Amino acid sequence: MTDNRSDCGCDSARLRIGFVVDHELNAEECAEVRAHCETCAECAEELRVTATITDKVRDACAECPPEDLKARVYGAVSEKIGKPLQF
Ligand SMILES: [Zn+2]
Q1: Which residues of the chain have pLDDT under 50?
Q2: What is the pLDDT of residues 49-71, one digit of tens each?
Q3: pLDDT of 44
Q4: pLDDT number for residue 62
Q5: 60: CA distance to ligand 1 center in Å?
Q6: Which one, 6, 50, 63, 74, has the greatest CB density within 10 A?
Q7: At a CB cut-off of 8 Å and minimum separation 6, what does 46 contact?
Q8: Whole-number Å distance between alpha carbons of 72 and 80
Q9: Domain regions of the chain by residue span
Q10: 36 alpha carbon to ligand 1 midpoint, in Å?
Q11: Rounded Cα–Cα distance for residues 51 and 60 (Å)
């Protein structure tokens, strides 16, 4: 039995899309995945969606924590180390 999908490069591209988005691949591998996406609408969509989600998560993580959370964490740490935190 022949697996046609293994010839198109989709499996390999899909496996690496997350790493491309996170900049965890070298330039050569990124170029391979992006080149595949230029010829494959499905993988291009996967890359677009993954990039969008990653951006949103990154934005959410970059936001400052609410003040009360900060105060609670500082308070808990201060208690643990037995002295006020200095920043
Ligand atoms: Zn593909």
Answers
A1: 1-6
A2: 999 999 898 888 887 777 888 88
A3: 97
A4: 82
A5: 30
A6: 50
A7: 14, 17, 37
A8: 12
A9: 5-81
A10: 6
A11: 14
- What whole-number distance in Å separates Cα of residue 20 and Cα of residue 23? 5
CA 35 to ligand 1 centroid distance, Å = 10
**Whole-number pLDDT of residue 3:** 47
- Ligand 1 center–CA 31 separation, angstroms: 14
Tell me which residues have their CB within 5 A of the ion that is ligand 1: 10, 40, 43
**CB-based contacts of 36: which residues, under 8 Å, 6+ apart?**
9, 10, 12, 13, 43
Ligand 1 centroid to 4 CA: how many Å? 12
pLDDT at residue 87, as a whole number: 63
The answer to whether residues 47 and 17 touch, using CB atoms and an 8 Å cutoff, is yes
Predicted model pTM: 0.61
